[in-house]
Amino acid sequence: MNRFEGQVAVVTGASRGIGLAIASRLVSEGARVCITARKPEGLAQALETLAPLGEGAAIAVAGRADDPDHQVDVLDQTIAAFGRLDVFINNTGINPTYGTLMEIDDGSARKIMDVNVLAALGWVRRARERGLGVERPGAVVNIASIAGLHPSPGIAYYGVSKAALIGLTMQLAAELGPTIRVNAVAPAVVKTKFAAALYEENEAEVAASYILGRLGEPEDIAGAVAFLASADAACMTGQTLLIDGGVSLRSGLG
């Protein structure tokens, strides 16, 4: 499959886990990509992973996702290297605190919203300013979470931020159509370093609550994101695709 032949994508938070799996999937289907993350070392390792999939198909730019100057730098370097921008994947997300809404401090709450929601909006604004959706239809995919669809004990404010990201997805879709489609995916627990605290000590017990009997893998999310970003989803916008292994069927909270 070469659904992304001739297309260029930016994937944020892509030094490992879901972001790197998405970048790998896009490159394997013909795209050229720019990956971003905070740490240059992690990005260097990610580029080594991507190199066998396509010679010269990936570049990396390190920086903070919520830094407007970094956003401008990433987009400018992407266009300088590859000449265009067709797909944008908002994958960066943080959750520096656990607990209830009554316990979270204001500083942590603001940081979560800045990175998980406001940065996503900033990226899309700047991508559009630099030609996303001009020469051919553009696509944005936001990585939300099942935590944004129902109460999520222990990660309460993270869930609030992902609910906001789902709302942002719908609003952007309404504003940017017909030239840019905007969709989201909402994974349940995926086996990544980011989510390790949710399953690492009792993976079998957690997985038992899933209809499919297993937790998600980064590649599961990458496949869904590639679909939404491709022409195969040309008639979809403003949608959030739940990827939960069936856990919401048992909880009744899908």
Describe the 3D structure.
By secondary structure, the protein is an alpha/beta fold. The protein has one domain: NAD(P)-binding Rossmann-like Domain (Rossmann fold). The chain is built from 8 helices and 7 strands; from the N terminus they run E-H-E-H-E-H-E-H-E-H-E-H-H-E-H. The protein has a 7-stranded parallel sheet, sandwiched between helices. Helix 1 packs across helix 7. The longest helix is centred in the middle third of the chain and has 24 residues. The model has no long low-confidence stretch (mean pLDDT 94).
Q: Give the integer mean of the pLDDT values.
A: 94
Instruction: Label the structural class.
Output: alpha/beta
Assign the CATH class: Alpha Beta
- The coarse silhouette is globular
Main sheet specs: 7 strands, parallel
DSSP, total strands? 7
* CA-CA gap between termini: 32 Å
Helix content: 40-55%
- Residue share in β-strands: 5-15%
Unreliable sequence segments? none
What sequence of helices (H) and strands (E) makes up the elements? Answer: EHEHEHEHEHEHHEH
CATH superfamily: NAD(P)-binding Rossmann-like Domain
CATH topology-level name: Rossmann fold
Radius of gyration based on Cα positions: 17 Å
In the CATH hierarchy, the architecture is 3-Layer(aba) Sandwich
Question: Can you tell me the number of structural domains?
Answer: 1
Query: What is the helix tally?
Result: 8
Main-sheet strand order equals 3-2-1-4-5-6-7
